[in-house]
Fold these 3 entries.
Entry 1:
Amino acid sequence: DSGRRNVLVCFVASLMIKQRNMFAGLPELGISNGEDLKETLTNCTEPLKAIDQFQMENGILLPTLQSALPFLDLHGTPRLEFHQSVFDELREKLMERVAIIAEGKEEDRYRKLEELLEKSFPLVKMPSIQPVVMQVLKHLPKVPEKKLKMVMADKELYKVCAVEVKRQIWQDNQALFGDEVSPLLKQYIVEKEAALFSSDLSILHNFFSPSPKTRRQGEVVLKLTQMIGKNVKLYDMVLQFLRTLFLRTRNVHYCTLRAELLMSLHDLDISEICSVDPCHKFTWCLDACIREKFVDGKRARELQGFLDGVKKGQEQVLGDLSMILCDPFACNTLVLSIMRNLQELLSQDALPRDSPDLMLLLRMLSLGQGAWDMIDSQVFKEPRMDLEVVTRFLPAMMSVVVDDHTFTVEQKLPSEEKSSLSYPTTLPDAFNRYLQENRVACEMGLYYVLHIAKLRNKNALQRLLPALVETYNDMAFGDIFLHLLTGHLTLLSDEFGSEEFCSVVFDGFLLTSFSSKENVHRHTLRMLLHLHHKVLPSCMETLMKTLEPPKQSSEPVKELFTQLTEKLEAQKKSPPPLEETPSLDLGLHPVTVPTTASTPTTPL
């Protein structure tokens, strides 16, 4: 009856009216919404006819469709489902058309998109229409400022809009961009520190093992690259954030990110940015050196050309170049190249000061080591290298090499020809002094210690380690060096069964600062987790008492100590089988080659 029909109609109308906020923008486009239906139903005498009329006026305006709709009814297909499918199809077609227009070459393509934006923007809050509006915004190279402000002011709209739109918002709103970038920069530092404290302890797989290209595939670098796009202004903002954070924290990982970000944009061929960054070609050349872990003569000359090419009035570029050279991956490459260069000079009986390649490597290492001071003081001038590093420190370091070589040769002589020569225990005064007073010399000294450990030279290592207790700015107790040293010490795992060796490594070096430097505590525990079964039992017992974390220690230290305790307990119950010393053998077996006139017989 009519009473029931009226109740049903009112119920349907109330459902539509509840959605009125969603369809609030329709009247601006001349389309009826829930409010119009409410008014129609309120003033009409025959609600069913009024609804039919409303559907007729606001449905799909296609005359031939009206006669076809009853067939859908016969198949039990609801009108809503039909209209929704048509709507979805039209929306997809419209979004495709927007992309085609934007990618076209017509001069008025952006005018067309702006007109479509004006018509569709009032419906931006309508979930079914919102994707179309966002598609238009995405493809407009310059969104009207009024629309940008409306998107920025609405958290929901800002969240769903494309990164292309956000870039236009960010470039005029540094604080908002900083809020977006800050979590990524924190994540990057956390990831780098996690790598340094990794549970893996190996000389073959360490912090410096990943190639530059692999590192650039990291989540943070990719996200930052996407956020910047081709926008030079945003790129400059990120660089400024990195400089500020580097100054505030002295954390060299920000220097790594500066180089990685530029090379990530280089990989994508973003010439809009690479062409305006004066450090691009220098970083590109250095990146190739880092990939090879060596600076060859040709690339050394290229890098020197970039440094010498800094013109008067453009000295500020040195600040960015120094930051790129301060990247630990760059420093690692430079010092490894210096070590290789010194070995060649030693074999040729040549002096360090006579090698232009060595002097250039030292120049770049010095520039990188002085990055923080340069950016902090804003005095953009290459630091003057202390020539005594070349004339006093390097000869002193080479004398240590000669001492070791002399002793080794002496041991190979027949007993009747041997002298009473014992292995030296002290170091030249110049070596110790420069290790404490000069950061460039200290960096080379630390890498020489790593080189000695890699050669499994126990005598030289026992001679050198105590000297590292006092180094420039406590560089020997930095995370990067300790990460590398603990990995290299795995090559000497059998030596930990000697009380003398344990005393030098632990009492003579690591335990001298573990109580004041928690990172040293962590690295020591990391190493013992891998080598505890090799350490002399009496030393291990003493170490466990010494290394027990105080209450104020951080959770990672406590967790490492707990893991070590559990391993020792398990070892007491079931002693593990003897393990072989980790080998650097890559499994490549020698192949016999027939000797001919053209085949060299000297082993390489």
Entry 2:
Amino acid sequence: MASKPGILTEWPWKPLGSYKHVVLAPWAMHSIYCFIGSRKSERDYAYFLIFPFLLLRMLHDQIWISLSRYRTAKRNNRIVDKAIEFDQVDRERNWDDQIVFNGLIFYIVRMLIPPSYSNLRFWRSDGVILTILVHMGPVEFLYYWFHRALHHHYLYSRYHSHHHSSVVTEPITSVIHPFAEHIVYFLLFAIPLVTTMVLKNASIASFVGYIIYVDFMNNMGHCNFEFIPMWLFTVFPPLKFLMYTPSYHSLHHTQFRTNYSLFMPIYDYIYGTIDRSSDSVYEKSLKRSGEEEEESADDVDVVHLTHLTTPESIYHLRIGFASLASKPHRYTYTLSQWYLQLLWPFTASCSVLVSWIYGRTFVSESNTLDKLKLQTWVVPRYIVQYNLPWRREAINSLIEEAILEADAKGVKVISLGLLNQGEELNRNGEIYLERQPNKLKIKVVDGSSLAAAVVVNSLPKTTAHVLLRGTVTANKVANAVASSLCQMGIKVATICKDDYEKLKLRIPVEAQHNLVLSTSYAAHKTKIWLVGDDLTGKEQARAPKGTIFIPYTQIPPRKLRKDCFYHSTPAMIIPPSLSNMHSCEVSSTWIKLLKLLLLPFS
């Protein structure tokens, strides 16, 4: 939001929230109906292709988002070496508003223009050349002066300051503007399109190509890493006047009063607004590329080794969809997430590619906690693969390779997330210590002690009895919770005799009398249930009214009872000093534990 929001700041469909795309539905359905219902010779391809083209633009933008965040996670040649704040992530979440707006305009214009203008040929060379020339002249010139006007304090405070709130830019920062600005931008970018329409040399290629060019240059210029090779400008020196680079536009976001040009810096050179450090910043950014790629993981203190859960969980990573990454992953979706089901064929193919291409772990996120540098590495395997006995050795090899790689790079602590620390898989990580006796300098932790402490502190202070349910003996957290509660004098009941016998061996003798074997659910009337992720609906139905279900695993039970209370999974409040944290799927629960473990090294 701008510092002093002006008129037409908000998008008209803001009240619709995530249902905003429904405004395109009537037009899209009508175009499909007309296309199918018409004879082949009478089909209006331009009208029909509007909706697929909008989807293509969204996919194009999402690819840039994922690429940028993957490069940022690896800390490769960042131009501005700062973290992205929560406010920016929230502010830039609605990046597709401008695509919805463009789609509506395309459909409305198509309905208003005569049929002779709408039946476009696929290619016309004269139209493509004219589009290029009109962009280089009127569009770039008018944008330059409009942009300078936006930096006048009156317009800047009411509109453009919203865009400049993002000092550390991402590709999608390019389209984060108030609604009023987008109206002007659309009119500017429509000049080449309208010109070719009036002169009757427009084509589908010139329309689609020009809009893709605008999207590509917008996204490229707002990346926070430099990748345009220097040899391009060496081979063709005039190119420096015709194409900007990410570092060139980054200076505009840090200096504010220089580098106003759209995509072609020529107007900054003509009117003397070129930043004098543009060339040096570009060269320095490229030089850091090779150096930082080698050093990106060498200065990391902590690595959290997580994994994928279901095929669609890739969208919940920071490199996925921001709207999903900001929320916990669920196995069922609300109506507002219907598109995930439509994306299933694409999701399945992407999942196969991820598992095939990434034969090893990959970096998905980087964070800092005070002076500690943290990274999240992902094992590209899913829950179904972890549950296959014949896949365990291969998964163990991936985990062991990650531990050895982290140890070789000087990482001090590596934490194993969820299924990477299974009792049946690797005995909670102990197998790796046995395979590498006296060789590992890195601390391998699973976070079970901290999770157990969170569960214990979640209990009401007046608690005297609890019922422990789930796969208790196979869960390290459940064992630690049972032992702690018994030592605190709290009665811990279990239904399974086998669990009772195994737990008793792990509890100090002086506290074993607090472990109770119940003969049935009815025999134990406690309303505090500590549950695992295998709690069934039938078991929930046997709980007394008002029961509090407190999970000790990362997957909470389904909320089937309206007369009971359900706690969230073991978690802690993220400290303010943690930066660049944008994904709920990163197990930040363990960060405070890791900080404590690192104290001897600091």
Entry 3:
Amino acid sequence: MDLVEWKQNPQVKWKGKDLFDLVCRTLGLRETWFFGLQYTIKDTVAWLKMDKKVLDHDVPTEEPVTFHFLAKFYPENAEEELVQEITQHLFFLQVKKQILDEKIYCPPEASVLLASYAVQAKYGDYDPNVHKRGFLAQEELLPKRVINLYQMTPEMWEERITAWYAEHRGRARDEAEMEYLKIAQDLEMYGVNYFAIRNKKGTELLLGVDALGLHIYDPDNRLTPKISFPWNEIRNISYSDKEFTIKPLDKKIDVFKFNSSKLRVNKLILQLCIGNHDLFMRRRKADSLEVQQMKAQAREEKARKQMERQRLAREKQMREEAERTRDELERRLMQLKEEATMANEALMRSEETADLLAEKAQITEEEAKLLAQKAAEAEQEMQRIKATAIRTEEEKRLMEQKVLEAEMLALKMAEESERRAKEADQLKQDLQEARESERRAKQKLLEITSKSSYTPMNSSTTALPTDLPSFNLISESLSFDFKDTDMKRLSMEIEKEKVEYMEKSKHLQEQLNELKTEIEALKLKERETALDILHNENASRGNSKHNTIKKVSEGSSLLSSLAA
């Protein structure tokens, strides 16, 4: 819930706490100490005071008055401090917006990784059949600075985001959002409120207030502080009119004084200092009873969700196995049908071939009989001619010629008859083979028919359950009482997760470096911002957010020059 609209009514004498509590109750939020209601007056940010009436604040006169429900203070370690899921979600939304709006500097390779967790939180597990090319086209996932810095198309960015998104399979929304915050909290500008200040000499500086302490920056470098004051090393913070004073715990270190442009800004700085210091000290004490109860409830809820996810995962696995079995049976059935169709077609072809061969054999046999008959007739004619007395020599010559022709015709008829007889025998043999092929085709069709009638594996193990949520066996084997054994097992799982996280962190850094190297060739150097250059310099020196603050907090000699 980002916007809260308030219509002024003189009869309603609500205090800031009344309106704030109403919003928190509406959201179901119990970790209220991180949040506040923010408004803007004369280009200056202000926060609604809990003990002051809403109408007594210097709020804009136009109606309705708009308040932004935002995180006012940030945790040092999001995973350890943020207990409620709604708290994590609100921080995720706010930090994500700050990164996209470039209020928090994020290097390109980390931007891609954070985008992949944002996609996991919104879309759930990656499914190539659902999340096809272009499904992120309308999503705002990367800062415009990062997009403009490289010669890369939206499709190229989507491909790299999706590659990491696919690796987050199995993470629930709250887990993906927490991974996002764990990476974001290591960014240099995360959780820092910046204010323009001047020291005694009038030198312009920036004051940064965050969960770890107070930091002094050069106006052109919001990433690396020149000097830092951890909360546990500050003795006193005060302001008089526009002058602000920081007194270190070590009296040997000079007092640091600076001026801001507006009294209202000094009040805001003091509010943030007091709130952050209180939370800093609170973290180092035993948890209050309320927080202990919240953490216990959160552990139980996490365990319940974990078991629920495991149950759903088992159901999903059983469903997928049943679907695979069904698909395999359907595929086998289709294969058997195709084999049966092919066998039927082969049988029909064999029958047709047999019929054709039988018909051709019959015709050939009849032709052979006819030729044999003609040969007999020619033989008879020859005998008749021989028996005829030829009186004259001419008649004798003509007769001899006719006899010769008759003999040649008879010989030819005999040869043709013999060839036809052989062809008839061959056709009879082909007919016999065709009938044998027909017999084999019928036998194969019978075998296929007997195969397709077999009973599949036991339906109790492969069939898809008709009512998945019931799963009596599974539900009976789980316990939701959260006894001590459950908590011990959960603790062991958490320790195991920590070890796995360290290994994943190493792998993650390798992936980030790999992506950075991969896209480095596509970078447009002339479009690099001052923060890009500063970040690269810090990275090349091996400087990180926390070790930089540790180093500069020890630099007491630099404090003297800044204070002057």
